[in-house]
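Schema walkthrough. Field components (list of strings):
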Amino acid sequence: MKVLELQQVSKRLGKFTLQDISLSIGKEYFILLGPTGAGKSVLIEIIAGIITPDTGSISLNGREITGLPPEKRHIGFLPQDYALFPHLSVMKNIEYGLRIKGKKNKFEVIEISKKLGIEHLLERHPENLSGGEKQRVALARALIVQPELLLLDEPLSAVDLKTKEKLMEELKRVHREFDVPVVHVTHSFLEAGILADRVAVIMEGKIMQIGKIRELLSDATSREVAEFVGVKDLFVELISQLE
Amino acid sequence: MKLSTIFALLSSILVLFVILPVFSTFTTQFSDLNGLVQTFQDYDVWRTILFTAYAAFLSTLFAVLFGTPLAYTLARTEFPGKNVVSGVVDLPVIIPHVVAGIALLSVFGSKGMIGSISPVKFVDALPGIVVAMLFVSAPFYINTAREGFQSINPRFEQVARTLGATQFKVFFTVTIPLTWRHIAAGALMSWARAISEFGAIVIIAYYPMVASTLIYDRFLNSGLQASRPISILLILFSLSVFITIRVLLWNGRKNESS
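Field assembly_structure (string):
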């Protein structure tokens, strides 16, 4: 079943151009993988409605959303720095999406906080949270409004390796337990290998290849993808060990 | 000699340059305490100072009402001619205020573009004073509020929208709460600047007198001895309001961070 469908989406931003992006994503954990400056973040901002594409169309669960503003898309978005509102407590951050719709519900906040193991943080302010705690709060805030899709922009780039491992497990669990499709942007093979059901390699504004991580490693369809994934021999080993 | 020592010396000269005339006004007045007491008991002086504070308050209200959207637009949006608009905002700071008064008179005067059709009388009336104050003090508010809006990461607003908030709701639930200190500081600066205005006001509305016009009037008619106590009263009044609001803002900040 298609959840998100992009057809020939293009966007020109100064010298950079995102070119004819066509993608079809199901109820899966999907990773957009590519080097810095490839256009990954631009693409998820287009999906979130923050950037308007020049051409192309986007649909979500069969609903045309290309011209819709972010508030009407029902897409959750976690930016790289989580962007927790600094003037609000954790409780009020999580509650925000409900409150502005007049559906303030403390019980729901507590319930989602328990699921994410952050109920002890509710009275704190974002500045007093660790990187991992911030991510969980941002997830709770995005998930409480029951989005049809969750976008994660480099969610693990600002944490140390040990926390990263823990958070990767957390993300996989959230995807499963909340039954929410995920599009996760990263430049890390490790994240793609551990988390992704499928991966799209994006380079210089173009989708180079889409498939399972093993397919990319064993059957790269272009020299650029082969070079991008080929140097990671250790990673190949890691994948075979995991399997 | 160390760079920090040279900087400290040069800085002290400028600080002294500002402090000295104010300090001297106070010390000279000590030789005429009787005059200060008399001014303190002068109903007309107090009425003029309070009237000036009220006019400055109205001017600040307009600056906040119309300046906030402008400051936000300048901080957040790219549009053709943005530099020109920014230049226009700063124009009142550059041009002499007497010239500003003449320019305002040509628009709000009885034969001016707006003054000729408006049912509101501007010349020698409170609206004229407010208009003159607004003209010279608005840049202080707009530029401070603009800095405030620029200091906020747009990600907060973007995320709020993905959580279902319209642009309007985002502005009042995220943007304003994160910028209120800049807005309050800008309003305070604008109010203080409006209170001290003379050049533009004296052209468009000599009467009813504001504090600066009264000081000038007493200086011309009765000399320094008559005008200095009013100056001291105006300084003390403005400073006490300024400091009170600053302290309130500072306490608000401390309470928020604790």
